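Attaching the record inline, Q. Sequence:
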Amino acid sequence: MKIRMSNIKETKKGWTAIALHVLIWAMVFLIPYIFSAGADRDFHPHDKGRDSFLHLNTALNFFWLVLFYFNAGWLIPRLIYTRKIALYILTVATMFCVMILLDSILFRVMYIPHGFSIYHSAGNNFIPFVFTIAVSAAYKAIADKNSADLVIKEKQSEHLKTELSFLRSQISPHFLFNVLNNIVALVRLKSDDLEPTVMKLSSLMQYMLYETDEEKVAVQSETAYLQSYIDLQQQRYGNELNLQVHFDIKEPWHTIEPMLLIPFVENAFKHGGMVQSPNIQISLSVADGELHFIVINTFEETKAVKDKTSGIGLANVKRRLELLYPGKHVLKTDKQADWFIIDLLITLQ
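Structure, as predicted:
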C-alpha cells in the first residue's frame, strides 16, 4: 500500500512537471502574437511582412525549445559534468551557426520581404540564444540539486528505518532472555505459577510478533504489554518485592513506538532485584498530549549487574528516542543514595 501511494505521488509530480513545461512554452510561443510584435524585428506597423516575421519567430521558437532540452539533457551531462569544457563551447558555437543557417533558410521558405543579413540575424538572435542556454543550465542545476536532495533524503530515511529495526531487534532477545530465566526458576521450584506464566509469555510473544512490526501502536497496547511483563516479574519475586504500579491513561488514542518503554522496566527489575528488600515504583500517565513515565528502583553500586547484556536496553532506547522524538522528549536519569530514577517526558501531539 505504501509503495502504491508512493508511485501515485511520483506520477502526480511527473505530470505536474510536464504540465508546467507545456504552460511555459505555450506562453513563449503566444507572447509575440499577443503583443503583435516581431521579436525585435524592425518593421513598419503596416508592413505586409509583419505576419511573416511572426511566423518566422514561431518557427525559431521550436529551435529554442530543442536547444533548451538538448543542452540540459545531453550537452551538460556529457560535456560539462565530464569537464570537456572546450568541446562544450565548440558545440554551442556550432549550434549558433546552425541557428543562423536555419534563420536564412526560413527567410527563403517563408518569402520574407526583406533581404537576409547574417549580421542582423546574429545580432537579433544572439541574446535569445545565450538566454536559452543560461536558463537551460540553471534548470539542469536546480533539477539535479532536487534529485540529489531527494536521494539523500531517501537514504537517510532508509538508514533510519534500518537503524530503528536493528535497535528494536536487540531489545527483543534481551527481553526474552530475562523472561525465559524467570520460567527456568519456576520450573526448578515446581511452582503452580508456571502454567499462568507460560500463558502470559504466550500473550507477550503474540504482541511482539504481530504488533511490533507496526511503526506505532496504541498507548494502551504498550501499557498492557508492560503490565504483563511486570506480572511475570512479580511472580518471580513474590512477596520479597515491594512493587507499586500506577497507570493513568486519560488519552488512549495516542500512539507510541512499540517496545519503547520496556527497557526501563527491565532495567529496574534487573538492578533493583539484586538488593535486599527490593523496591520498584512505576508510573505512566498520558494527558494533554504528553506521556510521562517514571521508574524508580532500589540500587546498590557494588551489586550492579555486569554482563554482556547489561545496559543494552537503555542505550538502545536512548538512541531510539533521539531518532523518533528529536526535540520532543526529555529523558532524565539520576542516582540518589540507594535509588535509581528514570524520568521520561514525551510530547505525543
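The first strand starts at residue 217 and ends at 218. The helical segments are 2-34, 50-80, 85-109, 118-189, 194-210, 219-237, 262-272, 312-324.

More tomorrow.
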